[in-house]
Amino acid sequence: MSDILNKEILDYLYKLFTIEDDILTEMEIYGRKKDFPIIDKYSGKLLHVLTQIKNPELIVELGSGFGYSAYFFAKGLKRGRVVLIDYQEKNIEMARYFFRKGNILEKAEFRVGDALKVATEYENIDILFLDLEKVRYLEAIRSLERNLSEDALIIADNVLWHGNILSKSDRKAEKLRTFNRFMSEKYVSVIIPVGDGLLISVRNCSI
User: Fold this and answer.
1) CB 85 within 8 Å of CB 124
2) 3-class SS at 60?
3) CA distances to 27, 66, 99, 169, 171 from 36, in Å
């Protein structure tokens, strides 16, 4: 960790720039109770800001769980909708519950099934968020490239894999390294070292 991003500075950033929302707090409590992994709140704020900047018509999220990260997207939407996809119906039902409680149900579409297969039903995706099985990230982007809008954003969580991205004995780390390299070569991409590493890529953008 650099001298700039020491623990005190990170604590300062997380306290200053996170979103305070009663529903998000309830979702965080639910996640801890169920031992369910969710994106960290600072990364969620980044999703919220990117949504407001991009002003998308369509966000498709692969691996939505009970809707925590999608809630940040939905709160940032000025128009359009976010599609939540998860293979477990109980997760999608909890997401629907939280979105209804947060009065943003109309901003979302809820789907149950294999996220990659369901996502292929959508075209002109403005923001594609990857949070499904890490070994499927590369498969997902290759399968869905034709479904993206001209200047789509691709965002992927967990790309530093709990700090183990350089591990030679971790199969998921190896798959993520391959994905990260692919995204760095084909798209204009950055990895933001917040949470577990958030990759942000832009389609059809030169540098």
Assistant:
1) no
2) strand
3) 10, 9, 18, 25, 22
* Non-local CB neighbours of 93 within 8 Å, separated by 6+ positions: none
For 128, 191, 192, the CA distances from 151, given in Å and listed in that order, are 11, 18, 20
Which residues, in sequence order, are CB contacts of 142 under 8 Å at separation 6+? none
The H or E element spanning position 110 is strand 108-112
Q: For the chain, what is the domain count?
A: 1
Q: Give the distance, in angstroms, between the CA of residue 155 and the centroid of all CA atoms in the same chain.
A: 6
Q: Are the C-beta atoms of residues 76 and 52 closer than 8 Å to each other?
A: yes
Let me know if residue 146 belongs to a domain. yes
Judge contact between 158 and 129, C-beta under 8 A. no
In a domain, 1, yes or no: no
Q: Show the tokens assigned to 133.
A: 């099985």
Tokens 């990895």 locate to: 191
One digit per residue, the tens of pLDDT, for the chain of length 207 reads: 445 667 888 888 888 887 889 999 999 999 999 999 999 888 999 999 999 999 999 999 999 999 999 999 999 999 999 999 999 999 999 999 999 999 999 999 999 999 999 999 999 999 999 999 999 999 999 999 999 999 999 999 999 998 899 999 999 999 999 999 999 999 999 999 888 999 999 986 655
Q: Which residue has the tokens 């530093």?
A: 160
- How many alpha carbons fall within 13 Å on the CB side of residue 191? 18
Closest CA to 125 of 143, 102, 104: 143
Query: Which CATH number does the domain housing residue 121 bear?
Result: 3.40.50.150
